[in-house]
Every structure is written in C-alpha cells, then in structure tokens.
Design a protein that fits this description.
N-acetyltransferase domain-containing protein, Aminopeptidase, 144 residues, 3 helices, 7 strands, three-stranded antiparallel β-sheet, 2 domains
Length: 144
C-alpha cells in the first residue's frame, strides 16, 4: 500500500495527539487545527497516521513530524512542500522553531529556511521536569 496525504479531520485527532505527545511533550492537543484543515497535511499508511504537519495562517509551522521507522522516505519533504503551497497565496514569510539538535535542520535548509535567532530554554514550558531533551531552539525563517 502507498502513503496517502489528506487534510486533517477529527477522525485523525486521537492518533495525531498521541503521536505528537510521545515525540515532543505530554499533553499536546491540536484540536484548534480542525478549524483550518486546508492548512494541514496528514500522511496515512492505510488508516494509520505516520506523519502530520500544521501551519498557521500567519505562516508559522506549529508541528511537522514523521513517526520513527517512516523517516527518510520523503514524507516530511512532501508535507513541507504542501505547507509552503498552503500559505504561498498569503504572501507571508514562513517561520518555525526547531530544537537546536534536531537533524531535521537539513530538511529546513533545503527549503531555504535560515536561522535568525538562538532561543535559550525555549522548550522549558513544554518539556517535563527532568527531561533530557534539548531545551534550546533555533528560530528559522523562509522569506517569501
């Protein structure tokens, strides 16, 4: 079976919340993105969510993630391309925060994102106490 790419729908909500909460930090809830499914993309293998990406109308990418085991298959690249197409008509720069040690930096650079700021302790308010995850982030921008 192939990977299908669809807009975010309420039938994906529990899988997406669980996937993001496991990968990033507990308690993530992307319910607000249901109001703008056109600014999302969900990667499905049969009925299993293997990737997701969301962008806000102001051009900020709030989440982009591919499940471990599905990485390096072009899924994130396809989703990033889709997000950039979603906001192209808005004429806005596209921005995001990424953990300072995230290997996805290479993907973002390939799309023309440039680091503008190093944000110390950006993830402090999200990560649980005692987490070993990197708390620092880079703020990236892709100019229109």
């Amino acid at each position: 079976a192939s990977i299908d790419y669809v807009h975010f729908h309420d039938r994906h909500l529990s899988q997406v919340n669980e996937m993001l909460s496991r990968q990033f930090w507990p308690g993530i809830d992307v319910t607000e993105h249901l109001s703008r499914p056109d600014l999302s993309v969900i990667a499905l293998y049969q009925r299993v969510v293997v990737g997701c990406a969301f962008i806000l109308p102001d051009g900020y990418i709030s989440y982009i993630m591919v499940l471990p085991g599905w990485q390096r298959a072009g899924i994130a690249r396809f989703m990033m391309h889709h997000l950039l197409q979603c906001v192209q008509s808005y004429g806005k720069d596209v921005t995001l925060h990424v953990s300072a040690n995230n290997p996805a930096m290479m993907l973002y650079q390939s799309f023309g994102f440039k680091a503008e700021e190093f944000v110390v302790n950006f993830y402090d308010k999200y990560l649980p106490e005692g987490s070993r995850e990197c708390r620092n982030a880079l703020f990236l921008r892709r100019r229109r």
